[in-house]
Amino acid sequence: MEIRTIGIDLGKSVFHLVGLDERGSIVAKKHFSRGQLLTYTANLPSCLIGMEACCGAHFLGALLVRQGHRVRLIPAQFVKPFVKSNKNDYLDAEAIAEAVQRPTMRFVPIKSTEQLDLQALHRVRDRLISRRTGVINQLRALLLERGIIFRKGRRYLRRQMPLILEDAEQNLSCRMRRLLEQLWQEWKSLEEQIQLLSDEIEKIAGQDEACQRLLAVPGVGSLVATALVASVGNGAAFRRGREFAAWLGLVPRQFSTGGKTKLLGISKRGNPYLRRLFIHGARSVAMHMNREEHALGAWMDQIESRAHHNVFVVALANKLARIAWAVLAKEKIYHPLPGIQISSV
């Protein structure tokens, strides 16, 4: 029988494949290395191939598309309901083949090389920032054990570090001074690496047309704009801004039954890094925007008057995310009109 649909369970070096015919019956069950898999699919007629959207899926998906196949990437949580009984690699591949045929299934667009490169920049920068935070926290803890306390703020501690290391009257042994000097040098090295990556991201944002349009949206800077383009491309995977905000996890979780609607805290699904950036951008807008001169001002005052501040910030992040999606997907420039009442979320 001719193979019409293929499910591939991805691995680091071993790939399990299950092929279905037009009636959905299993007609192929194989496992390959990467090279063997590409050779096998190259000799098949064009068919629908499903894979989980995980590490390496975008690269392999692009290769399979060049061979003439229709490739669909599925979020792993949407494949799980199709797994029968126990879990093994062949059952996973079969579940993927079943899921990819569903007409209502949600898919992940295959990222381009430029998107993957930009995503890598953000991931490395985020890791360096986490490492810098760890170094700073360790410095504060070591100094606290010697009775040296500083107020909150990374910049303030950075200004004081040279003075601490040079002050002979501080209760620090020679061994501790050497250790603090090593941590201080590591901190400065991390700062330089983070700045280099930030400069590169700024440069990309200045050259990309989609990023330039996004920069006009309140709360969206170079980091948010480039992270958004790297994650969703042109936004075509979503039909409307509401779907994009739901994917980001900026909408309430719902637990409704018996016709009774119950809304909980935000779902926190989707891309946690991008969601965090939008919330930080919303906090900045809430603090610094001149509400009397901006279209969002009246809406922000209305929400803030009846909601907790954190709820207000998340609602604002939701609003900004939906505006950003519209600017990205519809290829339009954001032009806020002053003094116009904006409808509630």
The number of helical runs is 13
The biggest sheet, with number of strands, parallel, antiparallel or mixed sense and barrel status, is: 5 strands, mixed
Radius of gyration: 25 Å
N- to C-terminal separation?
Answer: 52 Å
Question: Which secondary-structure class do the elements indicate?
Answer: alpha/beta
Assembly state of the chains shown: single chain
What fraction of residues sit in β-strands? 5-15%
Task: Write down the overall geometry.
Answer: globular
Number of strands: 7
Strand/helix succession:
EEEHEHEHHHHHHHHEEHHH
Number of domains: 3
Q: Which percent bin holds the helix content? A: 40-55%
- Mean pLDDT across every amino acid position: 89
Neighbour order of strands in the largest sheet: 3-2-1-4-5
